Amino acid sequence: RSWWDHVTPAPKDPINAVTEAFLADPCPYKINLGVGAYRDDDGKPVVLQCVREAEGKIAATNFLESTCAAISSKLVEESAKLVYGEDSDVIKEGRFAGVQALSGTGACRLFAEFQRRFYPDSRIYMPDPTWSNHHNIWRDAQVPIRTFHYYHPDSKGLNFVALMDDVKNAPNGSFFLLHPCAHNPTGVDPSDEQWQEISSLFKVKNHFPFFDMAYQGFASGDLERDARAIRIFLDDGHLIGCAQSFAKNMALYGHRVGCLSLLCDDKIQAVAIKSQLQQIASTIYGSPPIHGMLAVSKILSDPDIKAIWLKEVKVYFSSFSFLFHSLFTSIFIITCIRTIGLMHLLIISTCYKDMATRVQRMRATLKEALEKLGSPLNWQPITNQVGMFCFSGLTPDEVDRLAKEFHVYMTYDGRISMAGVTTKNVDYLASAIHEVTA
Ligand code: PLP
């Protein structure tokens, strides 16, 4: 008998399973729509200019321990400014406990552990659906999980009434996990007014909002705009928790840079909470790696590099994106050259390749292509939804047919990663989707 007879394979991660099936397919025109990482229009991973600039500057950094601790607190400080606002009282008064974390996953895991230690009888309420790993993270931290209504399959939008009911019916003082923008996997976010109502009800019910901010900048291309849900809660005087990831908005997946911050009543509380978070981290993984942290810290604290980053995630001209796909393209370009000059137009066109814009452009193109094919289904949600993902409403059978007959791979919940859609494959993808849904 072996020591390990009783160990059976763990269930496959749904996203890794898609990648495996994609890699095993020899078809030259296969498409991977499972991956949650940004790709350029050639389907290639991207290194942002701001990252290149930052890496150039940190190349000569002396990795002394004391330097690292100082830079790590710089990272935490700058990350907190990004979510809570440069001028917020929380930042001015130092009323938060923040620690560097192993990207968004690590930040969630730290918080789940913290929750179990200090609120051992509590549960976590998470949206249905949510990123599948949220369930694994809180399960492994032994925090009981409940779900709340979020997505309405018929409208392919938010089920706001049911959501509010669930918030109301949860016991007072419950922990809630919220996606502040670019909800994964649905791409459906509450409006500002709805966030306001949610925040007011949280106040009445004394619930704790924990925001998982994995995609700041991906919903609108504007980091401030994407933090609005959190600012609404902040204005209402909530104490908030927030997990931040720089994996997507700096395209730094492999470096695992993130931050966990918890708002506190005062500085004394902040010191106590920070020490507890550090202690939890030290027993799980010691300390996080430093290279990515140095790069992020440089991007956030060097005004010139930060400006490049903001530009890289910003949507330029998004409201005019349809023009690039219409008969009026050439007229439009000539008019632009006349009015703003060739140089400006070239700059704007370069910006056009930026992350959030490319994703938005692909949404519009995919929807148009499906409509042109005469699909009787309503594809409006493709452009209504925001962020990296599109919750298409495709059934598991249709997803299966897409893989087997058309070499198009996505998770069984019908989630399309828009980053995998390019100008070269969008028409083929539209006809494949049309075939399986017709
Ligand atoms: N939270 C959400 C909602 C996500 O979608 C993801 C990644 O897909 C994460 C957290 C984890 O991101 P990271 O790669 O930073 O760990």
Automatic annotation (TrEMBL):
Keywords: Aminotransferase, Membrane, Pyridoxal phosphate, Transferase, Transmembrane, Transmembrane helix. GO terms for biological process: amino acid metabolic process. Pfam families: Aminotran_1_2. It comes from the Eukaryota. Belongs to the class-I pyridoxal-phosphate-dependent aminotransferase family. InterPro entries: Aminotransferase_I/II_large, Asp_trans, NHTrfase_class1_PyrdxlP-BS, PyrdxlP-dep_Trfase, PyrdxlP-dep_Trfase_major, PyrdxlP-dep_Trfase_small. PANTHER family: ASPARTATE AMINOTRANSFERASE. Its cofactor is pyridoxal 5'-phosphate. Its EC number is 2.6.1.1. It comes from Theobroma cacao (Cacao). Gene3D superfamilies: Aspartate Aminotransferase, domain 1, Type I PLP-dependent aspartate aminotransferase-like (Major domain). Coiled coil: none annotated. In eukaryotes there are cytoplasmic, mitochondrial and chloroplastic isozymes. It is an enzyme of class 2 (transferase). The keyword Transmembrane helix applies. Homodimer. GO terms for cellular component: mitochondrion. Residues 30-314, 351-433 form the Aminotransferase class I/classII large domain. The chain crosses the membrane at residues 322-347. This is Aspartate aminotransferase. GO terms for molecular function: L-aspartate:2-oxoglutarate aminotransferase activity; pyridoxal phosphate binding. It catalyses: L-aspartate + 2-oxoglutarate = oxaloacetate + L-glutamate.
